[in-house]
Design goal:
Blueprint: H1 7-13, E1 23-25, H2 28-34, E2 41-44, H3 51-71, H4 76-82, E3 86-89, H5 98-108, E4 113-117, H6 124-139, E5 143-147, E6 151-157, E7 164-168, E8 176-181, E9 185-192, E10 198-204, E11 213-214, E12 219-223, E13 228-234
Parallel strand pairs: 1-2, 2-3, 4-5
Antiparallel strand pairs: 5-6, 6-13, 7-12, 8-11, 8-13, 9-10, 9-12
Length: 236
């Protein structure tokens, strides 16, 4: 999506991923293009993307459609391929953010896991809105994470049947693990394998008790009984 992306970081990080589809959200198309990724979906109101770049993709898509229309007379497979790339343009005056609309499409495609790059940056309103979309992902049965060069952000909530996360120390993202409540109260908090452990604790919004913990065992386990928390793994 169209926030800030360190392309050097992103280029290395995507090598660690196994993914089926790439969605480019508005200015995110510029990042995808710089990373050599060909998106299956380009979506947004396109108020921030470079117009010449978008025009190039639109012309390529138009030409591909013409070629596929000719080829479909000979093979149905060509028509199937012609439908594999989509550009969806939305009006700038709308009730959803572009990233939100992309997540709707991911749900329609029955995505089980979503990695969101470019969801952080200097626009804190968009950052907070994007973090809020993790709740929509949970509600829709998608395992979603926001990733940048400094943080991995996930949501743990009991409301939709997932109330436990494990983190292998060998695969953790950085050094620090923080739990940030997003509901007024989070109860039944159990943490194991961390420097500071909790046993059936209650944490509240505005309390710094669960900020900047560290994994000290092979595996850390975080469990809650009710409420919702952001799990933020950070590199310093």
């Amino acid at each position: 999506t169209g926030g800030g992306i360190d392309t050097c970081f992103a280029k290395e990080y995507i090598k660690t991923l196994s993914y089926d589809k790439v969605f480019a959200v508005d200015k995110g198309l510029e990042y995808a293009d710089a990373l050599g990724l060909v998106p299956e979906l380009i979506i947004g109101d396109f108020d921030t993307v470079d117009e010449k770049l978008l025009d190039r993709y639109e012309k390529q898509l138009t030409e591909a459609d013409k070629q596929a229309a000719d080829a479909v007379r000979q093979t149905a497979e060509a028509d199937k391929q012609s439908q594999s790339v989509r550009i969806i343009r939305h009006p700038s005056h709308k009730d959803q953010t572009d990233t939100e609309l992309a997540l709707y499409c991911a749900k329609e495609d029955n995505a089980s896991r979503v990695t969101i790059l470019g969801a952080t940056g200097s626009r804190l309103d968009h950052v907070l809105a994007n973090i809020g979309l993790l709740l929509y992902a949970c509600r829709s049965g998608m395992d979603a994470a926001i990733i940048d060069e400094h943080n991995r952000i996930r949501l743990l909530t009991s409301e939709y049947g997932v109330n436990e996360v494990t983190i292998d120390k060998a695969e953790q993202y950085g050094t620090y693990v923080s739990l940030i409540p997003v509901t007024p109260v989070v109860s039944g908090v159990i943490t194991k394998g961390l420097l500071y452990s909790l046993d059936n604790a209650v944490i509240e919004q505005g309390n710094g008790l669960t900020v900047s913990n560290e994994i000290i065992e092979k595996t850390a386990r975080i469990q809650i009984e009710s409420g919702a928390v952001l799990i933020i793994e950070s590199r310093d």
